[in-house]
Write a structure and sequence with these properties.
445 residues; Molybdopterin biosynthesis moea protein, domain 2; 3 domains; seven-stranded mixed beta sheet
Length: 445
């Protein structure tokens, strides 16, 4: 597969022109990649008004993902989530429907902020088993659709979640299709799922709009992401997608990130899917060895390893520290979990080193303490009212009884202890203590 963005930039750098345009480094090396770092000069195309090399590259990506349209983001899935909400808003207005969206409560904080800015009414589904897991039931969604006062114009789900749990999206897609609603999926952690055999990607399970953080699991620089519009997406939204991104995006996208997305197309059309399969097979073997060694695992995602180490006598943070001493750096740790992410770029010797490290640790007496139960939501204001209100930061100990002003979760996507606009309870304070949250933003009284 061709790489039109890379080819253009490489030819420009090799021509060595006098650069009387941005950026200020003028192509002269400080870190190393400056010669390839350009701006939207003549011939280079304009992101979100792409008609040249960027559009050609995006069409290559669309062919790989079998989408009606795939657009690039140089600002991660965060930008794509906002754009999905804008496109769903435009679709609701074209249908004459209220701006009401049903969402799994483990949504990325950007969803909450974007929905507030666009004035969506949010109906939460799936209260969550802990702060990182949420499994909305199709029956919850069906009940919302049955009542005109609660029926959503769109549904927003996160799959995979941070622990590697995945949803079967097909029942939700069928419910949405039957009721004329759009299905939006945050697939930030699952771009690689398209390249498994068979595909496990949301586009192949009925999603209308989907975002992938390419940089999380594919050979792409941090910030590279895709916004996909599926073949089931209303055709009227296709020409609106660039503007939906541009509404929230920087006008100075990174051309290094765009080249990285472009180069990934060539790799994904070649040998890279086979390497993904090999990595998944290697991690499956490691998971089997850990289960045989009495480790407790969570999640079904093929390239993510999530440990529940308290059964072996370790907190997630303590286990992460022990692995760091051996030169192994985890993705995430909290008191109950340790998350490690594998990709086709992971070498088998590295998985062997991880296996040796984990199996060499002695089993200690199990740690029995569990996180406090999630408090029942106590909404007082809409998220929009709360986010746009003056606030102050107070010690967590003084937060009960106050109204939360900003999202209270630090590791997205996750289930928040409370959502902005909800009144904080003593139960919430217990969770703040458990997760080491010392300060809270609350609405100024």
């Amino acid at each position: 597969m061709k790489t039109p963005i890379c080819d253009f930039v490489r030819a420009y750098a090799e021509a060595a022109p006098i650069r009387l345009h941005m950026p200020g480094h003028k192509g002269r090396a400080v870190l190393g990649p400056e010669a390839l770092d350009i701006t939207e000069i003549d011939g280079a195309d304009v992101l979100y008004r792409a008609r040249g090399v960027i559009r050609q590259s995006e069409e290559n990506a669309a062919a790989l993902f079998d989408s009606a349209r795939t657009l690039y983001s140089a600002e991660g899935s965060s930008l794509c989530i906002r754009a999905m909400l804008q496109l769903a808003l435009l679709n609701a207005k074209m249908q004459g429907r209220p701006l009401r969206i049903a969402a799994g409560r483990n949504a990325h904080r950007v969803f909450l902020e974007g929905a507030a800015l666009l004035d969506w009414e949010i109906r939460w589904i799936g209260c969550g088993q802990d702060l990182l897991s949420c499994t909305p039931e199709p029956a919850e969604l069906e009940a919302l659709f049955a009542d005109p006062d609660t029926a959503p114009a769109a549904v927003y789900l996160t799959s995979p979640d941070y622990l590697g749990n995945t949803l079967d999206l097909r029942p939700y897609a069928e419910l949405c299709r039957r009721n004329g609603a759009l299905l939006l999926v945050d697939n930030a952690h699952g771009a690689y799922l398209k390249f498994l055999s068979p595909s496990r990607h949301p586009l192949d399970q009925g999603a209308d709009l989907c975002c992938d953080s390419a940089h999380k699991t594919l050979p792409v620089l941090t910030g590279g992401a895709y916004l996909h519009l599926s073949r089931s997406c209303p055709a009227a939204l296709l020409p609106m997608a660039e503007q939906a991104l541009a509404l929230f995006a920087s006008t100075s996208p990174s051309w290094l990130i765009l080249q990285s997305l472009d180069a990934a197309n060539a790799r994904l059309s070649g040998e890279y899917p086979a390497r993904i399969a090999e990595a998944a097979q290697g991690l499956a073997g490691l998971k089997a060895a850990l289960l045989a060694g009495s480790w407790t695992l969570a999640g079904q995602e093929p390239l993510k390893l999530t440990l529940r180490p308290k059964a072996r006598g370790y907190t997630g943070e303590a286990l992460a520290a022990l692995l760091r001493e051996r030169g192994i750096v985890a993705e995430f740790a909290d008191p109950d979990h340790l998350v490690l992410m594998v990709s086709a770029g992971t070498e088998m010797r590295e998985l062997d080193a991880l296996q040796d490290a984990l199996l060499s640790l002695p089993a200690l007496p199990p740690i029995r303490d569990l996180p406090p139960a999630l408090p029942a939501p106590r909404p007082v204001l809409s998220p929009r009212e709360a986010l746009l209100s003056p606030f102050e930061t107070v010690p967590a100990e003084k937060a009960p009884g106050r109204i939360l002003a900003s999202p209270s979760v630090g590791c997205p996507p996750a289930v928040p202890i409370a959502v902005c606009g909800e009144r904080l309870s003593e139960e919430a304070l217990a969770l703040f203590r458990y997760y080491g949250v010392d300060e809270i933003d609350v609405i100024l009284e």
